[in-house]
Specification:
The structure is a single chain. This protein has about 120 residues and is mainly alpha-helical. The chain has two domains: about 1-35; about 40-115, no CATH class. The protein contains seven helices and no strands. It has helices at about 1-20, 25, 35, 45-50, 60-65, 75-90, 90-105. Helix 6 crosses helix 7. The longest helix is centred in the N-terminal third of the chain and has 20 residues, at about 1-20.
Length: about 120
Amino acid sequence: MAYILFTLSFVFLIIATVLYVTRSRWAPLLPFSSSYLYTQLPSNFQSDAESGLSSSTFNLADNIEAGDSRGGLDEEGKRQVQKIMRKKKVGFDEARRIWMQERFKKAGIAEDGLPRDPKFVSFS
């Protein structure tokens, strides 16, 4: 019995190794493409604007024209906004609004911008 278990384990190890080494040949033949699983996010304001992460109310043209050397928008924020855009089929402005509302909700902030803390006192 141990001989059969050892043989099966050894054969599985050999097959797994061969599949791992040759994955570049058979991976493109799979029914889903790797571009669907992973899309590279833009890394500067020019590519952010080209990928649809700009609008009339969130204009990146000023940053592009000024030659801003920063790395573009926040990577995690871009990823979340693009995910909302794909999942809910909405535009950039609506996806950004939904994302900000979710962030506010996690931080305990109401939609009007005030904290949800019942002990909060505001002197206006």
